[in-house]
Write a structure and sequence with these properties.
This protein is α/β, with parallel strands linked by helices and 121 residues long. The chain has 2 helices and 8 strands; from the N terminus they run ααββββββββ.
């Protein structure tokens, strides 16, 4: 009987500790995950913002088209290329090596930008 009481008491204490933790950290109660450390480039008014960006190795960059017309994100060296992105569509690419990666919109070649040197952190 004492063993059952000990297990029941331990379960109660565990439940109480969990409830206290969730009260202190409400985001855990909602099941929200930590936000990713990815970077975002907004495509708007025929520009990339920011036009130069630095991310760590294995860092992801997401381009979001906020223009009313489609854009295709294309690296100068052919490393990455999105499909035509309509308004509010996104394209992401993860950079696995250090370097400088210039890119442009292949539909509108005068739109240029680059992802700055990728550094190991």
């Amino acid at each position: 009987m004492k063993k059952t009481s000990l297990i029941t008491g331990s379960s109660f204490l565990l439940a109480l500790a969990t409830a206290a933790l969730l009260a202190v950290h409400p985001t855990l109660a909602k099941g929200e995950e930590a936000k990713s450390s990815g970077a975002e480039v907004k495509v708007d008014n025929f520009t990339f913002s920011p036009d130069t960006l630095t991310v760590p190795v294995n860092g992801a960059v997401t381009w979001v088209n906020k223009d009313d017309i489609p854009h295709v994100i294309t690296s100068n060296d052919g490393l990455f290329k999105s499909k035509a992105l309509d308004t509010d569509q996104k394209y992401s690419y993860t950079f696995t090596k250090t370097g400088t990666y210039p890119y442009y919109c292949s539909i509108h070649p005068k739109m240029v930008g680059k992802v700055g040197k990728i550094v190991v952190r």
